[in-house]
Amino acid sequence: MKRSWKLVPIVAVAFGLIFSGSAPASEDKEAFFSASIARENPNDKIFSISDDVGINFSQLGNWPDKLCSSTKDPKCNFKAVDNREENTISATPMLGLCEVAANDDCIESIEISNDATSFRNLTFERYMPDGFSSLLDGNTFPSDYSKNLPRGANASIWVDKADVSESPLKYIAYFSYVMNYSPESGKFEVNGVNLAIRPFKEINGFRWDALWEGGGKSGILFDFKPNSTFRVAVHVSNETAGWFKARLMDLSIEITKLNSRNNRLVVAGTSVTVPNFGVARKAEGLASKEAELAQYFGYLKGVVSAAPGNERIFEYIEYWRPLLQDIAPKTNTFWTLNSTRWTSSNKCLRDSTRVLGVVSTNSMGYDGTAPKFVDGFLNYRVSGFHFGSDGVTPNLGTYDLVMRSDAARCLYGFSSAPVSATVTIAGADGNQNVATTVVTEKNGWLKMKAAGFTFSEKQIKVRLTQDPNAIAPPSTAAKKSTITCVKGKVSKKVTATSPKCPTGYKKKA
Question: Which has the minimum average pLDDT: 105-119, 247-261, 488-502?
């Protein structure tokens, strides 16, 4: 089935901004896809904001001409790897479900909740079909742990059995690594970790904007239902360290050692709604600034999708703000978590041996670095259009910062005694913006949250304080113990001060 993208604009503002009709009455809503905006000429450009996690497939080798079916494939000549681009070998394994024969680098479980309290398990249904009938999309491959390479599977499809009678929505999970082969170590090294969940519906036939296509069907991206909260447990490489960024709200994170190769990462959070826009501009009528931005950010099939954490995203947003009357007529919903290469000059924030923290926001653009510690404040910058599609209702922002308690104390020279914090939202003009703020500390993590602030360009400032008379708890370390957990034929050991079996596992007697 081929879809017609002829749209009837109901409102048009400067330079071709197109508003589509109102959302359908049904709760399920097909996601905004910027490339669907009508263009008279295929060379015309569409300006928009991109996603944090792209849709991808398992790949091994050197794209596009040297993709390999395994590490034994002669196309992958590991002895010839050097610094020249044409000789490098990379891998982007899409990690599959944890199984008896493959219990490392995998998805253990996915749970869903409609109230962020009571969770129920999603059921693994199947893997996404292989690519789009082109090997350039990638292919699956077996693991080779002698080279530190996990198996490359396909994205996995999950079903909410409790909701299937009410809605045909299913969920596709992307959990992948970005890896490069090092001739010095003779192994693949993890340079990035991506985790995303996307709702979709299956339709008969083919659509060019599908998430996947196979077996005469296509998977079409939809928005999350309101208040969709997920808790995902994965076995992730212990090479993963530093800072993560996310599109989540009310997020929590737990990390425990699983074995010599993997940590068990459990992340929970509610999907967020991110304001967006789509501007169609004629190729022969681009302003010089637009042409320069298109060249800088790049474009695929005419779509300039600016990365929200790019160092020039604030400039990009400020260019379009007055032209589009500070209105974001579209939204996208996300549930994503990504490792970053963010670095900090501060010794307390640059530990490369463990995960230090996660920064999450629903803003159109944000700082592409870890929070900066300046004059006693942890500073972070966000930006977005002020109004929603009606041009009246303000877009409201969310910001979550979760960081290691000891890293925060290191910044201020605090003891292990309890701390408190204040979160301030300040506009570029210095005016304060009222927001609801929450600060909690639990299990070695400090969580700071701000919500309900309006957009433009904002500086989010977090300051920690500690009563000088506060008494630190006893320094005696809690004793750790190890238990064995089983699920069918799969077993794993969990070591902690109060070890508990993962969801779906039982403690071995």
Answer: 488-502
Q: Could you tell me the end-to-end alpha-carbon distance of the chain, in angstroms, rounded to an integer?
A: 55
Q: Which amino acid type is present at position 379?
A: N
Measure the CA–CA gap between 244 and 237, rounded to whole angstroms: 14
Domains and CATH numbers, the chain: 1-96+122-233+268-331 (no CATH), 340-465 (2.60.40)
Please state whether 138 falls in left (phi above 0), alpha (psi between -120 and 50) or beta. left
For residues 207 and 201, the answer to whether their CB atoms sit within 8 Å is no
Cis peptide before 142 (omega within 30 of 0): no
Residue 317 pLDDT class (50, 70, 90 cuts): very high
Residue type, 446: L
User: Which of 124, 156, 148 lies closest to 57, judged by CA?
Assistant: 156
Strand partners, 327: 387
Dist. CA 138–CA 54, nearest whole Å = 14
Residue 5 has pLDDT above 60, yes or no: no
The pLDDT value recorded for residue 211 is 86
Tokens of 217: 């069907």
Only one residue has tokens 């399920």, namely 28
Residue 100, pLDDT score: 85
**C-alpha of 463 from chain center:** 26
pTM over 0.90: no
Task: Quick: pLDDT tens for 452-479.
Answer: 899 988 889 888 888 776 666 555 455 6
Alpha-carbon distance of 419 to 453, in angstroms, equals 24
Beta-strand pair 120-121/106-113: antiparallel
Q: Kindly give, in sequence order, each residue whose CB lies less than 8 Å from that of residue 66, ignoring residues fewer than 6 positions away.
A: 75, 76
Euclidean distance between CA atoms 465 and 331, whole angstroms:
37
pLDDT at position 13 is: 33
User: Which residues lie across from 436 on neighbouring strands?
Assistant: 451
3-state secondary structure of 476: coil
SS3 assignment, position 49: strand
8 A C-beta contact, residue 7 and residue 318? no
Structure tokens at 280: 């169609």
Cβ atoms 464, 406 nearer than 8 A: no
CA distances to 100, 105, 254, 438 from 233, in Å: 17, 11, 9, 25
Give me the count of residues in the chain. Answer: 509
Structure tokens at 178: 């970005």
Q: What percent of the chain has pLDDT over 70?
A: 88
Angle 374-445-406 from CA coordinates, rounded to 5°: 60
Does 306 have pLDDT greater than 70? yes
Q: CA angle, 128 as apex, 506 and 267 as ends, to 5°?
A: 45
CA atoms within 13 A on the CB side of 128: 37
Count Cβ atoms within 10 A of the Cβ of residue 400 and give its class: 0-12 exposed, 13-18 middle, 19 or more buried: buried
Query: CA Rg, the chain, in Å?
Result: 24
